C-alpha cells in the first residue's frame, strides 16, 4: 500500500510538472496527456439507422418493459438520474448506470472493466438476466415483424440473430459522441473557449494529481485504479475499477459505481481525500468543478443536460 501510494504521488508530480512546462509555451498545444474529441465518423447509414431504432425498441427485453434508451436517455445525458436502475424483471442493478456517450473511446467497458468491446456489451446486455433478458427471444420477435425482417435481410442477408442485433446496436453506439465541448475548443487553440476560472481549475486538476488517472481522449476510461488508495471509498469489492471518463461529468449525477453521491463538489472532495490523500480548499473545489463543466459536449448539436430528477 505504501509503495502504491508513493508511486501515485510521484506519477502525479511528474505529470503535473511536464504539463506545466507544456503550458508555459503558449504557442504549443497541451497534448502531453489530453486530446480533443473527434467528430463522429461516417459509417453504414442503413446499419446505424437500424441500430438507432433497436436502441429504443422495447421488444429487445424479455417482458418488453425496457429498451436501451430506458437507462440511456439520449435526449439528456446518456444515462438516468437513478442511483441504481432496474432491469426488465425489476431487479435493481448492482452498479450505477454510466452514460453511453463517448463509450466508443473507452479501452474497457463496465465499472469492473470486464467488457472489451461495445459489441460484447450489447450482446451481454441482451442476454443478462439482470438487464434485458431478451437474448434469442428479441431476435425471434423482430423476425416476426415483416418490416424488420426485410431490413435485416437487406443489411445482413439473413433474418435477425443475437449477433446481428448486437452489430447494429454497436454501429449506432459508435456515433454517440459529444464533441465540441469548451475544453475541446481550448485544446484546438481557442484560448477564449474556457473562462479564467475553468483554466485555473484545469491547472489545479493537473497539479493536484487528478490527471494521473483522468487524462487522454476521454479524460479517463483508459486504465484501472485501486479504489480508496489512502482512505476507504465505498465498499472494497472489487478493489480495482476502470477509471471512469469525466466527459460530461457535470451533467451525469449521481456519481461513483454505487451512485452514492449526487453533488459534483462533494464527489471532487471525496476523490481528493480517498485517492490523493488531500483535503483541498473550497476554492480548489469550485475551480475544478468549473473546469469539469467545460467538459460538457453536444450530441447532434444539442448541449447535454442532467437527466430528469437529477440535482442541479
Describe this structure in words.
The chain is mainly alpha-helical. The protein has two domains: 2-38 and 178-303, Cytochrome Bc1 Complex, Chain D, domain 2 (Orthogonal Bundle); 45-173, Cytochrome Bc1 Complex, Chain D, domain 2. 39% of the residues lie in helices and 3% in strands. The chain is built from eleven helices and four strands. The protein has helices at 2-24, 45-55, 68-71, 118-127, 136-143, 146-156, 162-173, 182-187, 196-207, 264-276, 282-293, and strands spanning 224-226, 240-242, 298-299, 302-303. Strands 1-2 form a two-stranded antiparallel sheet. A two-stranded antiparallel sheet has the order 3-4. Helix 2 (45-55) crosses helix 7, helix 9 (196-207) packs across helix 11 (282-293) and helix 10 (264-276) packs across helix 11 (282-293). The longest helix is centred in the first third of the chain and has 23 residues, at 2-24.
CATH superfamily of the largest domain: Cytochrome c-like domain
Individual helix count: 11
Number of strands: 4
Query: Please, how many domains?
Result: 2
Residue-averaged pLDDT: 88
CATH architecture field of the largest domain: Orthogonal Bundle
> What percent of residues adopt helix (DSSP H or I)?
25-40%
Query: What is the level 1 CATH name of the largest domain?
Result: Mainly Alpha
- Which strand order spans the largest sheet, edge to edge or round the barrel? 1-2
Amino acid at each position: 500500500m505504501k509503495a502504491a501510494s508513493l508511486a501515485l504521488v510521484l506519477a502525479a508530480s511528474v505529470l503535473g510538472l511536464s504539463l506545466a512546462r507544456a503550458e508555459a509555451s503558449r504557442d504549443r498545444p497541451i497534448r502531453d496527456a489530453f486530446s480533443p474529441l473527434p467528430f463522429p465518423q461516417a459509417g453504414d447509414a442503413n446499419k446505424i439507422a437500424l441500430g438507432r431504432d433497436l436502441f429504443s425498441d422495447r421488444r429487445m427485453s424479455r417482458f418488453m418493459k425496457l429498451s436501451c434508451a430506458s437507462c440511456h436517455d439520449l435526449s439528456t445525458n446518456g444515462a438516468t438520474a437513478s442511483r441504481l436502475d432496474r432491469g426488465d424483471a425489476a431487479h435493481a442493478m448492482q452498479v450505477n448506470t454510466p452514460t453511453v456517450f463517448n463509450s466508443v473511446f473507452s479501452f474497457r467497458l463496465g465499472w469492473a472493466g470486464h467488457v472489451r468491446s461495445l459489441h460484447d456489451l450489447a450482446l451481454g446486455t441482451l442476454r443478462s438476466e439482470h438487464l434485458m433478458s431478451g437474448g434469442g427471444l428479441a431476435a425471434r420477435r423482430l423476425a416476426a415483424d415483416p418490416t424488420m425482417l426485410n431490413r435485416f435481410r437487406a443489411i445482413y442477408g439473413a433474418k435477425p440473430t443475437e449477433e446481428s442485433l448486437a452489430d447494429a446496436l454497436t454501429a449506432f453506439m459508435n456515433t454517440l459522441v459529444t464533441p465540441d465541448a469548451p475544453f475541446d475548443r481550448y485544446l484546438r487553440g481557442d484560448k477564449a473557449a474556457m473562462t479564467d476560472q475553468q483554466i485555473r481549475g484545469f491547472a489545479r486538476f493537473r497539479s493536484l494529481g487528478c490527471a494521473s488517472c483522468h487524462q487522454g481522449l476521454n479524460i479517463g476510461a483508459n486504465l484501472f485504479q485501486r479504489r480508496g488508495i489512502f482512505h476507504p471509498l465505498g465498499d472494497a469489492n472489487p478493489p480495482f475499477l476502470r477509471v471512469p471518463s469525466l466527459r460530461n461529468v457535470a451533467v451525469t449525477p449521481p456519481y461513483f459505481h454505487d451512485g452514492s453521491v449526487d453533488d459534483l463538489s462533494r464527489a471532487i472532495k471525496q476523490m481528493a481525500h480517498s485517492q490523493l490523500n488531500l483535503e483541498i480548499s473550497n476554492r480548489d473545489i469550485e475551480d475544478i468543478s468549473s473546469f469539469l463543466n467545460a467538459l460538457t459536449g453536444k450530441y447532434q448539436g444539442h448541449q447535454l443536460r442532467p437527466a430528469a430528477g437529477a440535482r442541479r
